[in-house]
Write a structure and sequence with these properties.
The chain is of the alpha+beta class and about 120 residues long. It has helices at about 55-65, 70-80, 100-120, and strands at about 5-10, 15-25, 35-40, 50-55, 70.
Length: about 120
């Protein structure tokens, strides 16, 4: 059985609240899970202790049993010091889109024309 440590969404519309759960990877996101391992409330401020609560002993147990944390849960575990930080590389994420690049080129060309006119005077 392929196990995942992932988030299961709760809360009402536009008021998200998540449970960190150990679940079979074939089950739906908010469906059946084996054990609740913690909670995550994204509405609280980032420095709040109540924002992320994890049962680290049980999470370590499930990781030893072969459960794979999802990307978001892996980041929580890295912040808690349970796992080592992974090197992530997404070079395309930081580059602007096509329209933004065209605007930047137009702005640079306009600035170059303005500086040439100022130099000519």
């Amino acid at each position: 059985m392929a196990m995942k440590i992932r988030l299961a969404r709760g809360g009402s519309k536009k008021r998200p609240f998540y449970r960190v759960v150990a679940a079979d990877s074939r089950m739906p996101r908010d469906g059946r899970f084996i054990e609740k391992l913690g909670t995550y409330n994204p509405l609280l401020p980032k420095d709040s202790e109540e924002r992320i609560k994890l049962d680290l002993d049980r999470i370590k147990y499930w990781i030893e049993q072969g459960a794979q944390p999802t990307d978001r849960v892996a980041r929580f575990l890295e912040a808690a010091g349970v796992t080592e930080k992974k090197e992530r590389s997404n070079p395309k994420k930081g580059t602007p889109g096509k329209a933004a690049q065209e605007r930047a080129e137009a702005k640079a060309a306009k600035a170059a024309e303005a500086s040439e006119e100022a130099a000519a005077e």
